[in-house]
Amino acid sequence: MSEPIVELSALTKVFGRGRHAATAVDGVSLTLGRGESLGIVGESGSGKSTTAKMVIGLERPSAGRIVVEGHDWTRPARRVAERRRRGRTVQIVFQDPYTSLDRRQTVADCLAEVVRLHFGSTRAETARRVGELADLVGLDARQLAARPRALSGGQRQRVAIARALAAEPGVVILDEAVSALDMSIQAQILNLLDDIRRDSGVSYLFITHDLAVVRQVTDSVIVMRHGRIVEQGATAAVLDAPRDPYTRLLRDSVPRPGWDPSAVPARGGTQ
Ligand SMILES: Nc1ncnc2c1ncn2[C@@H]1O[C@H](COP(=O)(O)OP(=O)(O)OP(=O)(O)O)[C@@H](O)[C@H]1O
Q1: In angstroms, what is the span from residue 192 Cα to ligand 1's centroid?
Q2: Is 51 helix (H, G, I), strand (E, B) or coil?
Q3: pTM of the full predicted structure?
Q4: 24 CA from centroid of ligand 1 (Å)
Q5: pLDDT of residue 261
Q6: How many angstroms separate the CA atoms of 36 and 39, rounded?
Q7: I want to staple 177 with a disulfide (CB 3.0 to 4.6 A). Which of 93, 140, 170, 224 is the partner?
Q8: Among candidate residues 28, 19, 92, 38, the one with its CA nearest the CA of residue 62
Protein backbone atom coordinates (compact mmCIF):
# COMPACT_ATOMS: atom_id res chain seq x y z
CA MET A 1 0.00 0.00 0.00
CA SER A 2 1.08 3.60 -0.59
CA GLU A 3 1.90 5.90 2.32
CA PRO A 4 -1.16 6.18 4.62
CA ILE A 5 -2.99 9.50 4.53
CA VAL A 6 -5.96 8.66 6.80
CA GLU A 7 -5.71 6.11 9.62
CA LEU A 8 -8.70 5.34 11.82
CA SER A 9 -8.17 3.10 14.86
CA ALA A 10 -11.09 1.60 16.78
CA LEU A 11 -13.16 4.70 15.99
CA THR A 12 -16.42 4.71 17.92
CA LYS A 13 -19.39 7.06 18.15
CA VAL A 14 -22.17 6.66 20.69
CA PHE A 15 -25.12 9.05 20.43
CA GLY A 16 -27.20 9.73 23.56
CA ARG A 17 -26.61 8.50 27.11
CA GLY A 18 -27.72 5.79 29.47
CA ARG A 19 -30.77 3.89 28.27
CA HIS A 20 -30.91 6.09 25.18
CA ALA A 21 -27.32 5.43 24.12
CA ALA A 22 -27.00 4.16 20.55
CA THR A 23 -23.70 3.10 19.03
CA ALA A 24 -23.57 4.44 15.46
CA VAL A 25 -19.93 3.50 14.80
CA ASP A 26 -18.38 0.64 16.70
CA GLY A 27 -14.60 0.19 16.62
CA VAL A 28 -13.91 1.03 12.97
CA SER A 29 -10.26 0.75 11.91
CA LEU A 30 -9.15 1.51 8.38
CA THR A 31 -6.26 2.93 6.40
CA LEU A 32 -6.58 5.04 3.27
CA GLY A 33 -3.36 5.27 1.26
CA ARG A 34 -2.26 8.36 -0.68
CA GLY A 35 -3.80 8.32 -4.15
CA GLU A 36 -6.12 5.42 -3.29
CA SER A 37 -9.87 5.18 -3.53
CA LEU A 38 -11.55 3.34 -0.68
CA GLY A 39 -15.27 2.56 -0.69
CA ILE A 40 -17.43 2.35 2.40
CA VAL A 41 -20.67 0.50 1.69
CA GLY A 42 -23.55 -0.59 3.84
CA GLU A 43 -27.27 -0.08 4.12
CA SER A 44 -28.87 3.06 5.51
CA GLY A 45 -27.99 3.61 9.17
CA SER A 46 -24.87 1.42 9.13
CA GLY A 47 -22.66 4.33 10.28
CA LYS A 48 -21.00 5.40 7.01
CA SER A 49 -21.78 9.12 7.24
CA THR A 50 -21.01 9.31 10.95
CA THR A 51 -17.56 7.86 10.23
CA ALA A 52 -17.01 10.55 7.57
CA LYS A 53 -18.28 13.30 9.86
CA MET A 54 -15.80 12.30 12.55
CA VAL A 55 -12.94 12.51 10.05
CA ILE A 56 -13.86 16.08 9.05
CA GLY A 57 -14.60 17.14 12.64
CA LEU A 58 -18.39 17.49 12.32
CA GLU A 59 -18.86 14.79 14.99
CA ARG A 60 -16.59 14.14 17.94
CA PRO A 61 -15.49 10.51 18.44
CA SER A 62 -16.54 8.78 21.67
CA ALA A 63 -13.42 6.60 21.47
CA GLY A 64 -10.65 5.64 19.07
CA ARG A 65 -8.17 7.69 17.08
CA ILE A 66 -8.02 9.65 13.83
CA VAL A 67 -4.63 10.33 12.25
CA VAL A 68 -4.39 12.33 9.02
CA GLU A 69 -1.06 12.91 7.28
CA GLY A 70 0.61 11.73 10.49
CA HIS A 71 -1.20 14.30 12.70
CA ASP A 72 -3.62 13.36 15.45
CA TRP A 73 -7.06 14.75 14.56
CA THR A 74 -9.01 12.93 17.25
CA ARG A 75 -9.66 16.11 19.23
CA PRO A 76 -11.19 19.22 17.65
CA ALA A 77 -8.73 21.81 16.35
CA ARG A 78 -8.54 24.75 18.76
CA ARG A 79 -6.71 27.32 16.68
CA VAL A 80 -8.13 28.88 13.52
CA ALA A 81 -4.95 28.11 11.58
CA GLU A 82 -5.18 24.43 12.52
CA ARG A 83 -8.90 24.30 11.64
CA ARG A 84 -8.08 25.82 8.27
CA ARG A 85 -5.21 23.40 7.69
CA ARG A 86 -7.51 20.46 8.42
CA GLY A 87 -10.24 21.91 6.20
CA ARG A 88 -7.74 22.20 3.42
CA THR A 89 -6.44 18.65 3.81
CA VAL A 90 -9.79 16.83 3.78
CA GLN A 91 -12.76 18.07 1.77
CA ILE A 92 -16.23 16.54 1.53
CA VAL A 93 -18.84 16.45 -1.22
CA PHE A 94 -22.40 15.64 -0.16
CA GLN A 95 -25.29 14.15 -2.09
CA ASP A 96 -27.14 17.42 -2.54
CA PRO A 97 -24.74 20.29 -3.21
CA TYR A 98 -27.66 22.74 -3.52
CA THR A 99 -27.99 23.01 0.25
CA SER A 100 -24.28 23.77 0.68
CA LEU A 101 -23.94 26.28 -2.20
CA ASP A 102 -24.67 29.94 -1.53
CA ARG A 103 -27.69 30.77 -3.70
CA ARG A 104 -26.66 34.42 -4.13
CA GLN A 105 -23.14 33.66 -5.36
CA THR A 106 -22.16 32.91 -8.94
CA VAL A 107 -20.19 29.72 -9.46
CA ALA A 108 -17.04 31.75 -10.23
CA ASP A 109 -17.38 33.75 -6.98
CA CYS A 110 -17.98 30.56 -4.99
CA LEU A 111 -14.76 28.99 -6.33
CA ALA A 112 -12.79 32.24 -5.99
CA GLU A 113 -13.78 32.49 -2.33
CA VAL A 114 -12.23 29.09 -1.54
CA VAL A 115 -9.06 29.82 -3.52
CA ARG A 116 -8.58 33.17 -1.70
CA LEU A 117 -9.35 31.62 1.71
CA HIS A 118 -6.75 28.89 1.41
CA PHE A 119 -4.06 30.54 -0.68
CA GLY A 120 -4.54 34.31 -0.25
CA SER A 121 -4.04 34.64 -4.01
CA THR A 122 -4.14 37.92 -5.95
CA ARG A 123 -7.16 38.70 -8.15
CA ALA A 124 -5.33 37.61 -11.29
CA GLU A 125 -4.04 34.37 -9.75
CA THR A 126 -7.48 33.59 -8.35
CA ALA A 127 -9.16 34.16 -11.71
CA ARG A 128 -6.61 31.90 -13.41
CA ARG A 129 -7.14 29.15 -10.85
CA VAL A 130 -10.95 29.42 -11.12
CA GLY A 131 -10.56 28.95 -14.89
CA GLU A 132 -8.38 25.86 -14.33
CA LEU A 133 -10.88 24.36 -11.89
CA ALA A 134 -13.76 24.98 -14.31
CA ASP A 135 -11.80 23.24 -17.09
CA LEU A 136 -10.98 20.36 -14.79
CA VAL A 137 -14.63 19.58 -14.04
CA GLY A 138 -16.06 20.64 -17.41
CA LEU A 139 -17.92 23.87 -16.56
CA ASP A 140 -18.12 26.51 -19.31
CA ALA A 141 -18.05 30.33 -19.05
CA ARG A 142 -21.86 30.59 -19.00
CA GLN A 143 -22.08 28.12 -16.12
CA LEU A 144 -19.31 29.95 -14.24
CA ALA A 145 -21.36 33.14 -14.41
CA ALA A 146 -24.57 31.38 -13.30
CA ARG A 147 -26.08 31.00 -9.83
CA PRO A 148 -26.76 27.48 -8.51
CA ARG A 149 -30.51 27.55 -9.24
CA ALA A 150 -29.80 27.95 -12.95
CA LEU A 151 -27.75 24.72 -13.05
CA SER A 152 -28.76 21.09 -13.44
CA GLY A 153 -28.07 18.53 -10.70
CA GLY A 154 -25.03 17.19 -12.58
CA GLN A 155 -23.64 20.71 -13.12
CA ARG A 156 -24.11 21.55 -9.44
CA GLN A 157 -22.25 18.40 -8.49
CA ARG A 158 -19.40 19.49 -10.79
CA VAL A 159 -19.36 22.82 -8.93
CA ALA A 160 -19.23 21.00 -5.58
CA ILE A 161 -16.33 18.86 -6.82
CA ALA A 162 -14.48 21.92 -8.16
CA ARG A 163 -15.02 23.71 -4.85
CA ALA A 164 -13.63 20.70 -2.96
CA LEU A 165 -10.60 20.55 -5.29
CA ALA A 166 -10.02 24.32 -4.99
CA ALA A 167 -8.46 23.66 -1.59
CA GLU A 168 -5.99 21.22 -3.21
CA PRO A 169 -6.87 18.57 -0.63
CA GLY A 170 -5.10 15.27 -0.04
CA VAL A 171 -8.44 13.54 0.54
CA VAL A 172 -11.94 14.07 -0.82
CA ILE A 173 -14.79 12.29 0.95
CA LEU A 174 -17.66 11.66 -1.42
CA ASP A 175 -20.76 10.98 0.66
CA GLU A 176 -23.38 9.56 -1.73
CA ALA A 177 -22.10 12.25 -4.10
CA VAL A 178 -23.51 10.66 -7.27
CA SER A 179 -26.56 8.92 -5.79
CA ALA A 180 -29.08 11.57 -6.84
CA LEU A 181 -27.87 11.78 -10.45
CA ASP A 182 -29.35 9.83 -13.34
CA MET A 183 -27.26 7.01 -14.76
CA SER A 184 -25.59 8.81 -17.69
CA ILE A 185 -24.68 11.89 -15.63
CA GLN A 186 -23.49 9.59 -12.84
CA ALA A 187 -21.18 7.81 -15.27
CA GLN A 188 -19.76 11.16 -16.48
CA ILE A 189 -19.05 12.32 -12.93
CA LEU A 190 -17.47 8.98 -11.97
CA ASN A 191 -15.20 9.12 -15.04
CA LEU A 192 -14.30 12.69 -14.16
CA LEU A 193 -13.42 11.71 -10.59
CA ASP A 194 -11.29 8.84 -11.87
CA ASP A 195 -9.38 11.15 -14.25
CA ILE A 196 -8.82 13.71 -11.50
CA ARG A 197 -7.44 11.07 -9.15
CA ARG A 198 -5.07 9.75 -11.80
CA ASP A 199 -3.79 13.23 -12.64
CA SER A 200 -3.59 14.75 -9.16
CA GLY A 201 -2.95 11.80 -6.83
CA VAL A 202 -5.82 12.82 -4.52
CA SER A 203 -7.33 10.06 -2.35
CA TYR A 204 -11.05 9.30 -2.17
CA LEU A 205 -13.18 7.93 0.61
CA PHE A 206 -16.23 6.91 -1.34
CA ILE A 207 -19.36 6.45 0.75
CA THR A 208 -22.22 4.83 -1.07
CA HIS A 209 -24.90 2.18 -0.88
CA ASP A 210 -24.41 1.48 -4.59
CA LEU A 211 -22.16 -1.49 -5.35
CA ALA A 212 -21.93 -0.59 -9.06
CA VAL A 213 -20.38 2.75 -8.07
CA VAL A 214 -17.96 1.00 -5.73
CA ARG A 215 -16.89 -1.38 -8.47
CA GLN A 216 -16.24 1.47 -10.90
CA VAL A 217 -14.24 3.87 -8.73
CA THR A 218 -12.64 2.12 -5.77
CA ASP A 219 -9.53 -0.03 -5.30
CA SER A 220 -10.64 -1.49 -2.00
CA VAL A 221 -13.84 -1.57 -0.02
CA ILE A 222 -15.13 -1.81 3.51
CA VAL A 223 -18.58 -3.22 4.22
CA MET A 224 -20.31 -1.82 7.31
CA ARG A 225 -23.25 -3.16 9.21
CA HIS A 226 -24.66 -1.81 12.48
CA GLY A 227 -21.59 0.40 12.89
CA ARG A 228 -19.04 -2.38 12.42
CA ILE A 229 -16.85 -3.52 9.57
CA VAL A 230 -18.05 -6.95 8.50
CA GLU A 231 -15.76 -7.39 5.50
CA GLN A 232 -12.92 -5.58 3.77
CA GLY A 233 -10.49 -6.16 0.95
CA ALA A 234 -9.75 -5.44 -2.71
CA THR A 235 -12.99 -4.32 -4.37
CA ALA A 236 -13.10 -7.01 -7.05
CA ALA A 237 -12.35 -9.77 -4.53
CA VAL A 238 -15.02 -8.61 -2.08
CA LEU A 239 -17.70 -8.11 -4.72
CA ASP A 240 -16.93 -11.25 -6.77
CA ALA A 241 -16.48 -13.63 -3.86
CA PRO A 242 -17.93 -12.08 -0.70
CA ARG A 243 -17.18 -14.09 2.43
CA ASP A 244 -19.59 -12.36 4.76
CA PRO A 245 -23.31 -13.28 4.46
CA TYR A 246 -24.29 -9.60 4.72
CA THR A 247 -22.01 -8.65 1.79
CA ARG A 248 -23.56 -11.50 -0.21
CA LEU A 249 -27.01 -10.17 0.64
CA LEU A 250 -26.04 -6.63 -0.45
CA ARG A 251 -24.62 -7.97 -3.70
CA ASP A 252 -27.56 -10.26 -4.41
CA SER A 253 -30.00 -7.39 -3.79
CA VAL A 254 -28.69 -5.45 -6.82
CA PRO A 255 -31.01 -5.84 -9.83
CA ARG A 256 -29.21 -7.09 -12.98
CA PRO A 257 -30.12 -9.15 -16.06
CA GLY A 258 -31.65 -12.46 -14.97
CA TRP A 259 -32.01 -11.24 -11.36
CA ASP A 260 -34.62 -13.06 -9.31
CA PRO A 261 -35.83 -10.99 -6.32
CA SER A 262 -37.45 -14.05 -4.75
CA ALA A 263 -34.00 -15.66 -4.48
CA VAL A 264 -32.74 -12.86 -2.19
CA PRO A 265 -32.93 -14.17 1.37
CA ALA A 266 -34.89 -12.21 3.96
CA ARG A 267 -32.78 -9.93 6.19
CA GLY A 268 -33.25 -12.23 9.18
CA GLY A 269 -31.34 -14.94 7.34
CA THR A 270 -28.04 -13.13 7.75
CA GLN A 271 -28.16 -12.44 11.46
N1 LIG B 1 -26.85 13.34 15.41
C2 LIG B 1 -27.32 12.11 15.66
N3 LIG B 1 -27.97 11.85 16.81
C4 LIG B 1 -28.43 10.61 17.11
N5 LIG B 1 -28.28 9.55 16.29
C6 LIG B 1 -27.66 9.74 15.13
C7 LIG B 1 -27.14 11.03 14.75
N8 LIG B 1 -26.54 10.91 13.52
C9 LIG B 1 -26.69 9.62 13.15
N10 LIG B 1 -27.36 8.93 14.11
C11 LIG B 1 -27.67 7.48 14.07
O12 LIG B 1 -26.48 6.78 13.83
C13 LIG B 1 -26.72 5.66 12.99
C14 LIG B 1 -25.78 5.72 11.79
O15 LIG B 1 -26.17 6.82 10.95
P16 LIG B 1 -25.35 7.23 9.66
O17 LIG B 1 -26.00 8.47 9.09
O18 LIG B 1 -23.92 7.30 9.98
O19 LIG B 1 -25.61 5.99 8.71
P20 LIG B 1 -25.36 5.84 7.15
O21 LIG B 1 -24.82 4.47 6.97
O22 LIG B 1 -24.56 6.97 6.64
O23 LIG B 1 -26.84 5.92 6.59
P24 LIG B 1 -27.40 6.67 5.27
O25 LIG B 1 -26.86 5.89 4.12
O26 LIG B 1 -28.89 6.55 5.42
O27 LIG B 1 -26.90 8.07 5.35
C28 LIG B 1 -28.19 5.70 12.62
O29 LIG B 1 -28.88 4.81 13.47
C30 LIG B 1 -28.59 7.13 12.90
O31 LIG B 1 -29.94 7.20 13.27
Answers
A1: 29
A2: helix
A3: 0.89
A4: 6
A5: 59
A6: 10
A7: 93
A8: 28
